[in-house]
Amino acid sequence: MNYQEARDKFISTWGALGTLWGINKAMAQIHALLFVSPEPLSMEEIMEVLGISRGNASMNLRSLIEWGIVYKVNIPGERKEFFASEKDTSELARTIAKERSRREIQPTIKVLKEVSSIEDDGTKKTRELIKKTKELYDLADTADTMLNKVVDQEQNWVTKTLLKLLK
Amino acid sequence: MNYQEARDKFISTWGALGTLWGINKAMAQIHALLFVSPEPLSMEEIMEVLGISRGNASMNLRSLIEWGIVYKVNIPGERKEFFASEKDTSELARTIAKERSRREIQPTIKVLKEVSSIEDDGTKKTRELIKKTKELYDLADTADTMLNKVVDQEQNWVTKTLLKLLK
DNA sequence: ATAAAGTTTCAATTATTTTTGAAAGTTTAA
DNA sequence: TTAAACTTTCAAAAATAATTGAAACTTTAT
Asked: How many CA atoms lie within 13 A of A32 on its CB side?
């Protein structure tokens, strides 16, 4: 497998994974491309390599910037804008985990708390609803806390110890 | 909030979360409904509560069964089939984690391994591709291992210790 | 054997999401 | 200031995914 084949395979796999996780293909592929590019790329180059339109590139770059995993880069002497991905893999993981937690998990946890707090009228079905949503609340809350702590402190002793214990 | 409001809020939130994670709404909602139902439900009842067609109910129930989180239940004296969700929350989490790992993470890890194993031709871009995909490989592999171990042994001392350390 | 009850399948429809492309907007250099 | 270079926006089109509904299929009771 040569460079281009390997890069394209990575980009297309990353795009397919994104799709499976509710992230659109262009967004995931732009990220993949920037992540493995040693130099920042212009919008033109991104459009070219991925075969996507200007509008598509522009909108998805904006989303990636909102997510905090892509940056605009100014290259001296160049008029146009260049884009680069967050290059530190741990930092990338941290940002994605934080954002997904904030946008998706936390709101769900909030609803689970509300629903599990309804008054127990003594009926079987109400009891079951309260019990199950309470359990999901505990699970989601624990998982969310762990996730955030682990990615936050990827290099600390807790994680290292943990890895030794679990591997 | 009364029972029905609470249940419907839970079902609709679960459906929305599913959508965000690449799971279709009907599938996530059927699961939510069964998860909080004290008794197994017939396809008729599921269609009725969620307002979906017979075909939709049938296909999504099949998917849930393939995922291993919904079961067919035979009720003596009843001709039709009833459906029930896995009721143990830890077991549910374990099954989902295992399945997502198997279907999505493992294939991605495989590609990352392939791509990061291409021959280093000494160019900057090849070096970068190898380096970055290797880092992602390590991250994904570690995360996957941890996830599986943690959900596998939710009650054991490692996890308990871990929670104390991290909370 | 057969008909009623129940389930599955899948082509067609509907809904949703993504992408395009061109017009409008912005920035920069002269 | 102005015009070229570049970027953003968004309505329309295309692509994709979800859903329906009815025919085909299966099971069960008599």
From this structure: 25
